[in-house]
Amino acid sequence: MKGISYLTDENNKRKAVVIDLKAFKKHEEEIEDLLDILIAESKQAEESISFSTVVKSLKAKGKI
After folding, report:
1. Residue 30: which H helix or E strand, with range?
2. In contact, 17 and 31? CB cutoff 8 Å
3. DSSP state for residue 41 in the 8-state scheme
4. What are phi and psi of 24, to 5 degrees?
5. What is the pLDDT of residues 42-58, one digit of tens each?
6. Could you tell me which of 5, 24, 25 has the C-alpha nearest to residue 16?
7. Measured between alpha carbons, how far is residue 35 from residues 26, 31, 38, 53 in Å?
8. pLDDT digit string, tens, across residues 2-46
9. What's the angle, vertex CA 55, arms to CA 50 and CA 56, rounded to 5?
10. Which neighbouring-strand residues pair with 16?
11. How is residue 56 annotated by DSSP?
12. How high is the mean pLDDT of the chain?
């Protein structure tokens, strides 16, 4: 597909995809949504912090 390239390992297995965003300008929102989903999925295993803990921490640092 035009505008899509794959990066491969030494065994020629696909490891990453490069998307030419200029080639997909009309699909910019969908690509952003896809990236948001990938980021969210990659963070699922991370420990969560409650909102109140974050607020207390920011107040202690003088950020809010």
Report:
1. helix 28-42
2. no
3. H
4. -120, 30
5. 999 999 999 999 999 99
6. 5
7. 16, 6, 5, 28
8. 889 999 999 999 999 998 888 888 888 888 899 999 999 999 999
9. 100
10. 7
11. H
12. 92
